[in-house]
Amino acid sequence: MIDIKALSKTYIVRRLTDADIEDIYRLCSTNPQYYIHMPPPVSRESIIADMCAIPPGVTADDKYYIGCFDGGRLAAVLDLIDGYPEKGVAYIGFFMVDAAIQSCGVGSVIINELCRYLSDRGFASVRLAWVDGNNQAERFWLKNGFSKTGSIERDDKTIITAQKILNPIFA
Ligand SMILES: CC(C)(COP(=O)(O)OP(=O)(O)OC[C@H]1O[C@@H](n2cnc3c(N)ncnc32)[C@H](O)[C@@H]1OP(=O)(O)O)[C@@H](O)C(=O)NCCC(=O)NCCS
Fold first, then answer.
1. Which residues face 152 on adjacent strands?
2. 135 found inside a domain
3. Bond before 40 cis per omega within 30 degrees
4. Is 27 in the pocket of ligand 1 (CB under 6 A)?
5. Is there an atom of ligand 1 within 6 Å of 11 CB?
6. Quick one: which atom of ligand 1 is closest to the CA of 130?
7. The whole model's pTM is what?
8. From the CB of 31, is ligand 1 less than 6 Å away?
9. Fewer CB within 10 Å, N or C, the chain?
10. Range of the domain at 95
């Protein structure tokens, strides 16, 4: 069980609901280049689908589709799965910062605070993936201490997998 309010000291973090769809859509629409790597372009329908999507082996209780708010403004969206692909691992399925406030350290603050929280709770690692060629994502994750672990071919794309070890003793 993740206490999402404790994930950040800098931002207000809460679960996103149907009432937030317009704000999520607005934020995602500021990042058209992301959808060149991960088509189709964002739509309200794709956001609703993402809100509900859960990988195999976990339940809806393990999924945290959350927003990081700066004042009342949605600054970032994070899709976090507790216990995927195995217990003790947290999986970031999606992370996006409003383009209007990118390259100011917002993404790094959120991810570093998240990793600190997960590390303190005994999580072994955080895992994620990006599409090969999404240089923005690759540089960001490598800069924030993630290491490539492999690659998967899917739908004519190469997906780069990566992880950050939090508690080496358990990893
Ligand atoms: C990746 C992302 C979350 C970073 O958020 P951010 O708030 O800009 O991150 P920070 O300001 O903390 O860090 C900026 C770092 O991101 C990387 N970065 C940002 N824009 C970049 C670009 N256009 N090209 C290459 N790297 C870039 C760099 O490593 C940069 O640090 P540097 O300038 O010191 O090299 C944000 O750019 C984003 O939402 N992108 C679209 C969605 C996405 O690709 N998400 C990751 C999916 S796996």
1. 159
2. no
3. yes
4. no
5. no
6. 48
7. 0.96
8. yes
9. N
10. 4-129
